[in-house]
Amino acid sequence: MRDFYENYFAAIERSQAHRSFCERVFGKDLGQHGFADLEQLELLIEATGLGPGQRVLDLGCGNGMIAEYLSDRTGAHVSGLDYIPLAIEQAQKRAVSKADRLAFELGDINRLELPPEAFDLVLSIDTIYFSEDYVATIRELKAALRPAAEMAFFFSYGREPWVPVEEFPVEKLPPDKTPLAEALAANGLVFRTWNLTDADYRLALKRKEVLLGLKPQFELEEALFIYENRMGDAEGVSQAIEAGLHARYLYLASTGAI
Predict the structure, then answer these.
(1) Which contiguous run of DSSP H or E holds residue 119?
(2) Which helix (H) or strand (E) holds 146?
(3) Does the reported pTM lie above 0.90?
């Protein structure tokens, strides 16, 4: 997995095909590897009340383009954390002129070393999946929150293509039953959710359409591995949703009432 992301961040820095893909599918090229388009990011800003003076942790920030966008839009100070050295190097280089509200450093979601009570908001934009133990990771994140602070997660849960249909736990699809919901509850957190499954499906179909048109350009750039990865994701998600075996949510979690 680490090798894939090293190659991915190296490739997208120079790939016009991937830049076009992100612009046409997500509305803006932010180096997205997940399913968060501008509409979902605007929902995130609205739901969290993100604004100036807030200190935010972007867990699994990649090359920092989404963190930079959120900071530019809201004035919040965003610290990005990721385990891919090249991605952090790219983020740090790009954010030199915005050091008053952007900071990026290496870190591993499974070996977090966060200062206590340092953040008003923790963001996980399709990154909690990399945790080997959701309960333990969220416990560490909770300790890094200031009083009355929040965590926001974009989280998808569904059947992977290699999992037999009869073995997928469909009872865990509701927002209060997913593995993330269980981990939040285990840490004494309450949460609200927004159902983004329909948006996920529309994006999956759009991804397939746009990727097919850009395939020759990916080939010319010798970046077919990106095409194949993104197409595989889109195929898997669209098929699972059509079978009623996939859901996507925005979670907003807090230690108190929301």
Answers:
(1) strand 119-125
(2) strand 145-158
(3) yes
Sign of CA dihedral 36, 42, 47, 52: positive
Whether 156 and 241 have beta carbons less than 8 Å apart is answered as: no
CATH class of the 2-254 domain in this structure: alpha beta
CA distance 200 to 246: 9
pLDDT in tens, 36-68: 999 999 999 999 999 999 999 999 999 999 999
pLDDT in tens, 118-143: 999 999 999 999 999 999 999 999 99
- State how far the Cα of 252 lies from the Cα of 49, in Å rounded to an integer: 11
C-alpha–C-alpha distance, residues 208 and 191, integer Å = 33
Q: Within 13 A of 18's CA, how many CA atoms are on the CB side?
A: 22
Q: Which residue intervals of 49-157 are DSSP H helices? A: 65-74, 85-94, 134-143
| Amino acid at the residue 240 | A
State the Cα angle at 172 between 168 and 177, rounded to 5°. 165
User: How far is 239 from 91, CA to CA, in rounded Å?
Assistant: 34
CA 90/CA 68 separation, integer angstroms: 12
The domain spans of the chain are: 2-254
How far from chain centre, in Å, is Cα 4? 17
